[in-house]
Amino acid sequence: MHSYLEFEKPVADIEGRLRELRSMAEEDPNVDLGGEIARLEAKATDTLADLYSKLTPWHKTQVARHPDRPHFRDYVDAFITDFLPLSGDRYFADDHAVQAGFGRFDGQSIALIGHEKGADTKSRLKHNFGMARPEGYRKAVRLMQLADRFAIPVISLVDTAGAYPGVGAEERGQAEAIARSTQTCLNLGVPVVSVIIGEGGSGGAIAIATANRVFMLEHAIYSVISPEAGASILWRDATRAEDVATAMKITAHDLLRLGIVDGIIDEPVGGAHRVPGDVYEKTAQTIREALAELVPLDRDALRAARREKFLAIGRDLA
């Protein structure tokens, strides 16, 4: 059974009726409900397609945050083998919001970094809802430096509302840790491929997404600040988040047009959580193609191309 967003209520009503009819058909095989079930299935499909054909930026924000949306660990299980997570930043502690380790992708050794939000209340608290503390970014730096030393490509999967803004995080140098992680990304002499799989929030995202290739899932979002925080700053009213989401151009199609991301990975109608296997396959193929282009390049070419990519953002808009 799916969790439904507010704008998906028309589909929820139809699919709720479908579940009732299927239950009735199972309880009494003599009752012929096949025709009505088929009619409602078609109606549910058409209604969902209609809703998702005209999503607003705020709707996409809700889809990107959907509680059933696949998370970092789901992608690891889908197409990474022999994954060995590494813990700790060797300075203070281990941060559970940032997961990092080595594994194999299509038999090739890779370093993998990503945000993990958690799938239920207990795991969400453990992973701090994907909001990393400084030690999370220092762990990422440690992993990236190891990958660079051994000429191993880096893949990052981004899904965070932003870095954790707590007092302890600030005391331990949150801004410096994010800046150092971003600098490390820029200086790597190995291919770096990043995919925004859900939310890409502020420095918490860019710290591991300063990559040679940056891709977004169709209903992911990527922004300098969350819509709620932006509304609180501009109008001291978080309820105006929908206005900010629209103004900031945070959707994949807007960001592709602006040259901030390099490509969009299509999602099934209804979002990645409806048919996650399809999304895993398309994401793996996108990463595969990007690595095929980048692996042959030498270290200096990779660094130069990565820096030029980010320096060029906004140039054509001036």
List the helices and strands and how they pair.
Blueprint: H1 9-27, H2 34-52, H3 57-64, H4 72-79, E1 81-85, E2 98-105, E3 108-115, H5 121-126, H6 134-149, E4 154-160, H7 167-171, H8 174-187, E5 192-201, H9 202-209, E6 213-217, E7 221-223, H10 227-235, H11 241-247, H12 252-257, E8 263-265, H13 276-294, H14 299-311
Major sheet description: 8 strands, mixed
Q: Which fold name corresponds to the CATH topology of the largest domain?
A: 2-enoyl-CoA Hydratase, Chain A, domain 1
Question: Rough shape?
Answer: globular
Q: What is the structural class?
A: alpha/beta
Uncertain runs are none
| Structure annotation, total helices | 14
Level-2 CATH architecture of the largest domain: Alpha-Beta Complex
How does this structure look, described?
49% of the residues lie in helices and 15% in strands. The protein has 318 residues and is of the alpha/beta class. It has 2 domains: 49 residues; 257 residues, 2-enoyl-CoA Hydratase, Chain A, domain 1 (Alpha-Beta Complex), CATH 3.90.226. Strands 1, 2, 3, 4, 5, 6, 7 and 8 form an 8-stranded mixed sheet that branches.
Brief write-up:
Helices cover 49% and strands 15% of the residues. It is of the alpha/beta class and 318 residues long.
Characteristic key phrases:
2-enoyl-CoA Hydratase, Chain A, domain 1; 15% strand; 14 helices; alpha/beta; 318 residues; 8 strands; single chain
